[in-house]
Amino acid sequence: MTDLKSKWLPAVLGGLLLSAAFPKTGFSLLAWIALVPLLISLRGLDGGGAFRVGWIFGLAHYLTLLYWVVFTMRTYGYLPWWQCISLLVLLAAYLAVYPGLFALAVVRLVQRPGHLVILAPVFWVALEYLRSFMLTGFPWGLVGYSQFNRLHIIQISDMFGVYGVTFLVVLFNAAIYVLLLLLAEKKWEGQTVGRPLAVKAGVLAIGAILLALTYGSHRIKAVDNARAKAPTARVAIVQGNIDQARKWDPAFQIGTTKKYVALTQEAASRRPDLVVWPETATPFYFAASPKLTRMVTDAVRQAGTYLLAGSPSVDMEQGRQAYYNSAHLVTPEGHAGARYDKVHLVPFGEYVPFKCILSFAGKMVAQVGDFSAGEKGRTLGWKEGRAPIGVQICFEIIFPGLSRSLAKNGAGMLVNLTNDAWFGRTSAAYQHFSMAVFRAVENRRSLVRCANTGISGFIDPVGRVVVQTPLFEDAVVDQNVPELRQTSIYTRFGDLPALLCLIGLAGLAIRQRMMTGALPSGGMPAALPEKLKHWVDRMVGKRR
After folding, report:
1. Does 356 qualify as catalytic in the annotation?
2. What is the per-residue DSSP string for 151-196?
3. Residues 247, 342, 350, 501: which is the catalytic one?
4. Which one from 394, 442, 450, 501 is the annotated catalytic residue?
5. What pLDDT digit, counting tens, does each position of 306-365 carry?
6. What pTM, to 2 d.p., does this model score?
7. Active site includes 342?
8. Is 394 a catalytic residue?
9. CA pseudo-torsion sign 243, 245, 250, 251
């Protein structure tokens, strides 16, 4: 019987290495070897042991990646330390289930070492994709995001999304592990790794990376040429740097508004087409507070430019008040124009999920209120002849499908309004910013990011960070932003490759259960379509 505890140390090491690949630490190359210790730990384990080791790997990773949850809940949620730490542990324990399932799938479904090189990245991508929508979804810190600054590698995202980069990284990890099996003369599931197999695994991994680099070089040149010919809009970002502890204090409402007005007047001297304020920049309900709203619209009229400002909204719907976390477009004449309402709300921050069960959690969001979700893919038209603006608020930027829906609906640029003051100077602000890079590359759109306390900046359609502001400083920055209108493969088809990985994992799991007799014996059920049976057989191959 394998000593399970002896497997935990490599798993913990792997989890720590993977965390170190993300900002702030940012040693992105570590991601290419971080899964090797986990794979080493899985050899010789049964399904239950593999799940536990994978879960330990995930726990070590997410506790260190998301440590900032404790800071946020303690500083702004005013919770006792023990509750803050408990919330982090619960979140990490849930997210660790996915690496646990990966480890279980590898041990149960990979019978030959040669299959590991392909199936390991398929399984990992499938489970990352599952995590993106399970329980409202939390695709924070997907493996591919660690490579945000590897410009040539991430260009494949315009075909496969961030999951394509994840696939490549996990593929390389698996190839390294197969090579180590050869060098150590160890077996996988009783089968020896021969030199030809190890060479094939290495050639496959290196070949895939070289193809990605070649494609990246080609696409960077092509997109740069298109960018040079594209129409541009002069956009100014206003980073107000408002203390989160004072943001909603009524005593500071007028002072906060005056500060944004003054910074906007400074931006207006640069003659921008559009000025952008961050999420909930106005500490009042826009239009529902006439005096403060007039301060904003008068300033816009004097500036003679469009303003896109984050502000909560309230509407009367079916006899009740409906609240929205919104972005308001104000015209140069000072009139309220189009409005975008946040679609993907933060659980326990902007609403309480499953209220009938979790009614006790109401106090956690009492100061924020329950917001309603807006319409997915809604773009904002502005200047005549200009492509509409695609807005995402706060952590909506970590959901690839939301950016894709905006680009599909004709958005010429993506604008992310956020308030990352909650994160302080922790790694969270840097992690959040890094994920925005992929939304630009996936859809080949310029991305403008405006944050209350930073990090604000401009990202071009190939993922270059053109301008980046420091944290906790007042800032006004402006750039000419190209408006591309080409439609990428990813914008057309979305996360179809990731979905196919999930279907493949499910198909292999079903087949394995049938073959071990956990489902009715006799092979495939008669009701199963013949085509699906044929597809599963081809995916796995007949066992003799």
Report:
1. no
2. TTGGGGHHHH-HHHHHHHHHHHHHHHHHHHHHHHT-EETTEE--HH
3. 342
4. 394
5. 999 999 999 888 888 889 999 999 999 999 889 999 999 987 677 666 555 555 444 344
6. 0.92
7. yes
8. yes
9. negative
